[in-house]
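agent> Task received from the user: take the single chain below, predict its 3D structure, and emit structure tokens. No templates, no multimer pairing.
agent> Plan: (1) validate residues, (2) run structure prediction, (3) serialize to tokens, (4) report one or two observations.
agent> Step 1 OK, no nonstandard residues flagged.
tool_call: predict_structure(input=
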Amino acid sequence: MRTWASSSSCPSYAYKHGKLPSLGVKRLSTGIPEVDELLAGGIPEGFLVAVTGEPGTGKTIFCMHFIAQGVKEGDKCVYVTTEESRDSIIRQAEQFNFGFKEAVEGGKLIIIDALTGLEERWALKSLDVETLVDKVIEAKKELGRGRGRLVIDSMSAFWLDKPAMARKYSYFVKKVLGRWGFTTLAVSQYAITTSEAFGFGIEHIADGIIRFRRFVRGGVLRRFLLIEKMRQTPHSLTMHEVIIIDGRGMVVRPARISKEDVALPRSVMDRIARAIREREAELPGDEL
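)
tool_result: status=success, residues=288
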């Protein structure tokens, strides 16, 4: 497989030097300049992108950057949180100066709490996909017309007890909410032991896949990011290291890694291959 190096053929090089054709594709900035460079300028408008990875790899912070950039650009922003409360998301955003509290109070951002089961307008009492979609549409109507940004953190929560439904649910979310002008980041959790997704199928439906990984080498935790898929985009194919800085957020830089850094044990690889075969046999079709 071809990988991009620091040459004029690299998408990030071409993007920075104005050598990439626009192809008529409107792109949304992720809020992280280094990632935009890897994506020839950003995520194509209207896409559903799967943000995948194990716990603690930086997925939520990446999504916060995306929403904070949307608020800055005047987009209609909705953040659905299933694994933290609304207050927790706001506090974490404040740690990196993203200003979620002010955005919510100013009517620029709606955070839907799907964890606590609160009896209020912007909360979900149950993890039901149709209820989720209805609530997101209600939030978009409240925010008004215009380009929308949506984060669902995480989608995995909606199929934990029925992982074979992941593909069908993902298709439904993409089909319906795409009509409402949303560009969506859908977080998908991965198991620590196998690096395999909880629910196999969102990767097939998604227009893009941004995968986060982590390794411990020499007693130090290192985080990495890889653009595995992005339609309509000449994207980077090389792994980049993720640095999280208090008060600033995520910084991405080229990674220096060895084969040992990314290789999984043979027994784990065998389990992953077996799980993929079993889940592919269980996958329902795209029909609703």
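agent> Step 4: summary for the user.
Residues 36 and 195 are 26 Å apart (CA to CA).
agent> Done.
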